[in-house]
Write a structure and sequence with these properties.
Helices cover about 15% and strands about 20% of the residues. The chain has about 325 residues and is an alpha+beta fold. It has a single domain, classed as Oxidoreductase, molybdopterin-binding domain (Sulfite Oxidase, Chain A, domain 2), CATH 3.90.420. It is globular and about 50 Å long. Residues about 1-60 have low confidence and may be disordered.
């Protein structure tokens, strides 16, 4: 299947590093604890500034080479927002809970096991993974199913680069991601919202798509724990819950895997979870979004089909009913 390359953005439209580090001052007060527009849930309680400061656990630089094919003209979200406003239920359901508690998670040593329909199953340590390919900086849109969004400069390399190391068999049709479980370090595990571990999945062609990124850093630094350290995936045309964090296991399967949210609420969270403004969530519209950092009363942003990546990924779903396969 042919995948078109994303349009190149002129260098004059790419936000320079100095701007994405300091462009926005921190959003104070007004948004905390209020209902987000569109019924998308509550903003996290408490001061996100304090949360981000308490969880300042970035351990070093990880400056990837900017890939001009994966830049967008949207200004990146302020770093404080990216590390202070998260969904990571292993640490709690509040938006500031991950920043408050994730420092407890142990990320060294760390291994990633790849198994299932592969010719060469392997377990990689973190250092081997980080040396496997050159790191790129890619600026992606992130659209949460709760109708808020960010623009994030990730550091990593294509997931396909890793999967090629284990030589998928002809039976490999799907890829399943399993996140870490550390009961002593993850207070959210005591709330049985999810049957832990957290599990997500992709179709094989989605996993091998050039946009699907294995991520090790953000803003030129190693991933903070609350953002999915030490490695996660980023799949920018899908709702954010598809992008598994703190991954310890990848399985290649010959059948569609049951994923965590699809198991809990299949009428609300489907396997595909492609960003689609024409298909509402049962409890709110997906036609627009609130861009984090723009201020609570800023105009909402229209949501784009496939989160603005239609030119690259629409061909994956030719002939598919995207309302039925949400």
């Amino acid at each position: 299947m042919r995948d078109s390359k994303p349009p190149r953005i002129p260098a004059s439209q790419i936000t320079p590093e100095s701007v994405w580090r300091s462009r926005r001052s921190w959003l104070k007060g007004a948004g905390a604890g209020l209902l987000s527009w569109g019924g998308a849930g509550l903003l996290g309680s408490g001061s996100l500034i304090g949360s981000a400061a308490r969880a300042s656990q970035v351990q070093g630089r990880l400056a990837g080479t900017p890939n001009p094919a994966y830049q967008i003209p949207d200004a990146p979200t302020a770093e404080q927002d990216v590390i202070g406003y998260n969904n990571f239920y292993e640490f709690g359901t509040g938006k500031s809970d991950p920043a408050d508690h994730a420092a407890r998670m142990q990320t060294r040593p760390w291994t990633l096991t790849i198994e299932g329909e592969v010719e060469k199953p392997r377990t990689f340590d973190l250092d081997a993974l980080m040396k496997l390919a050159p790191m790129e900086e890619r600026i992606y849109r992130l659209r949460c199913v709760e109708a808020w969004s960010m623009v994030i400069p990730w550091e990593g390399y294509p997931l396909a680069t890793l999967l090629r190391q284990v030589q998928p068999t002809s039976k490999a049709k799907f890829v399943q991601f399993e996140s870490a479980v550390q009961p002593e370090n993850m207070p959210g595990l005591h709330d049985r919202i999810i049957d832990w571990p957290y599990v997500e999945g992709l179709r094989m062609d989605e996993a091998l798509h050039p946009l699907t990124l294995l991520v090790f850093g953000v803003y030129g630094k190693l991933l903070p724990n609350q953002n999915g350290a030490p490695l996660r995936v980023a799949i920018p045309w899908k709702y954010g819950f598809k992008s598994g964090k703190s991954i310890v296991r990848i399985r290649l399967l010959d059948h569609l895997p049951e994923t965590s949210w699809a198991r809990i609420a299949p009428h609300e969270y489907g396997f595909y979870a492609n960003v689609n403004p024409k298909v509402p969530h049962p409890r709110w519209s997906q036609a627009s979004e609130r861009r984090i950092g723009d201020g609570f009363f800023a105009p909402r942003v229209p949501t784009l089909m496939f989160n603005g990546y239609a030119d690259q990924v629409a061909s994956l779903y030719t002939g598919m009913d995207l309302r039925a396969n949400y």
